[in-house]
Design goal:
172 residues; mainly beta; Mutm (Fpg) Protein, Chain: A, domain 2; 6-stranded mixed β-sheet; 6-stranded antiparallel β-sheet; 2 helices; 49% strand
Length: 172
């Protein structure tokens, strides 16, 4: 697999978000991905499954010749009834909007759609299972957990942003 920095450097777009997902669990398979783009589109789709111990990526880019960024949400299911959702927002105009990312773990099966995007983007609280973070010049990190699953994430502050996500099992 190509290093992410090399991969995003080859993309000819003003804004993009490359999401790397590392499944560091021993028994959880991530499956049935879905994505919703409020702005932009899927450039490199998420893999259908990410098995325990594997790392994969997907990429979202802005629509060419538009004053819009790369903004949306990605979901994966685990077990029969749980969803991990990752929100990303790399806007076109940093004078109007900031770069944000968020994570949600829920014990419901959720599909990426406008309702989930709006719920996550406009979330103004902080809980163990949901967070939304504004990315500063130094980058930011977040962690959420539900039951025995924990999600850690970091995102760079760049027009070609990299969002790294780790899925872990805890002793809970």
């Amino acid at each position: 697999m190509q290093p992410l920095v090399e991969l995003v450097s080859k993309v000819d777009t003003g804004r993009c978000v490359c999401i790397e997902i590392a499944n560091k669990t021993s028994s959880i398979t991530l499956s049935s991905p879905s994505s919703y783009c409020d702005s932009g589109f899927v450039y490199c789709p998420p893999p259908p499954t990410i098995s325990p111990g594997n790392v994969d990526h997907c990429m979202f880019v802005k629509t060419p010749s538009t004053a819009c960024g790369s903004v949306g949400v990605l979901t994966y299911h685990y077990s029969e009834t749980h969803t991990i959702a990752i929100l990303f927002s790399n806007p076109f105009d940093y004078n109007i909007h900031s770069i944000y990312f968020g994570a949600l773990i829920t014990d419901e099966v959720r599909k990426a759609d406008q309702a989930l995007y709006n719920e996550m983007y406009h979330y103004d609280g902080q809980s163990d299972h949901q967070k939304l973070i504004e990315v500063t010049r130094n980058g930011e990190s977040l962690g959420v957990h539900l039951g025995h699953v924990k999600v850690l994430a970091t995102m760079s502050n760049d027009k070609k942003a990299i969002l790294r996500v780790e899925i872990l099992e805890t002793g809970a």
